[in-house]
Amino acid sequence: MNPSPTLTLPEVEALARQAHSAQKDKAGRPYTEHLEAVAKGVESRGGSPEQIAAAWLHDAIEDNALTEEWLRTAPLTPYTKAVIRALTKQPGEPPEAYAARILATPGARLVKEADLAHNANAARLAELDGPTRTRLTAKYANMRALLGIEPPD
C-alpha cells in the first residue's frame, strides 16, 4: 500500500482483479476482462484517474466482490466512491431510477457509457445464446436511451 491517503490506479486494478478473480461473465470468460475493457474505455473517452478507478470497481458492490462497508472506509476519493455508488444497481430498482442516479452523479455517465459499449459489443454478444443476446441487447439499448447515449456504430 502506498503512503498516500488514496489507492493508486495500479493498486485499484490489482484490488479489482483479486476481488473478481473467481467470477466469469455470461459467456464464461474471466470477469476481469470486462473490468479492464471498461477502464480502457473510460480512459479513451478522456476520463479522469478517479473515473478510471471507478471503472475498475463499478460492479464490485453489486456483484458482492466487495462490500458497501469496505467502500465506506476504502482509501478512495469521495468522487470515486460516489461514482461507484451511482453505478451500483439496487435489487428491484427500475431502470429509470438507476439512470436518474447516474445522470445526477457527476462523472458516472461516462463510466456507464464505457460499460455499455463493452457489454453491447457485437463480438461479445455473439458468444451468448439467442434469447440471452436478445434480452441483453434490448436492456442495453433501453439504458442508452435513458442516459442519452448514442447507439454504437
Would you give an account of this structure?
The protein is an all-alpha fold and 153 residues long. Helices cover 62% and strands 0% of the residues. The chain has nine helices and no strands. Helix 1 packs parallel to helix 3 and helix 3 crosses helix 7. The longest helix is centred in the last third of the chain and has 18 residues. The chain is globular, with a radius of gyration of 15 Å. 30% of the residues are buried.
Describe, in short, the structure shown.
The protein is mostly helical. The protein is 62% helix and 0% strand.
Q: How do the helices and strands follow one another from N- to C-terminus? A: HHHHHHHHH
**Class of secondary structure makeup:** mainly alpha
Principal-axis shape equals globular
Poorly predicted runs are none
- Rg result: 15 Å
Largest sheet: none
Number of strands: 0
Number of H/I helices: 9
Distance between the termini: 41 Å
Percentage of residues in helical conformation: 55-70%
On the 0 to 100 scale, the average pLDDT is 94
User: Approximately how much beta-strand content do the residues carry?
Assistant: under 5%
Per-chain topology:
Elements lengths: L8 H11 L11 H14 L4 H9 L10 H6 L4 H10 L7 H10 L3 H12 L2 H5 L3 H18 L6
Helix pairs in contact: 1-3, 2-3, 2-7, 3-5, 3-7, 6-9, 7-9
Task: List key phrases describing it.
single chain, 153 residues, mainly alpha, 9 helices
